[in-house]
Amino acid sequence: MQLRGKQKRFLRAEANHLQPLFSVGKNGLTPAWLAQLDGALDKRELIKVSILQNADETTSEVKEFIESQSTIQVVQTIGRVLVLFKVSDLPENRDLSTQVEKI
User: One Pfam family for this entry, by name (predicted)?
Assistant: First the structure.
């Protein structure tokens, strides 16, 4: 699902109270890290990822890697924090995506 402006605005508001669950450190971006991220998004649909100070990657490199290697969408970047959204593969976990579709 390609997100429109109002949908992104809704997701940003929903992510406001969230704390980052994943971080990118000196180990960098790996397929295993992306698989864990994908699994977490199947449960929650909306998470935050922080990029640590000792990471070699920039925010734009992390965003490019995530969007090119998966179906995860970057909703917002705030400094070194990314807000990510993906429609869950499990129908019972699609609470947020059903609300987004109605917008």
Answer: CRS1_YhbY
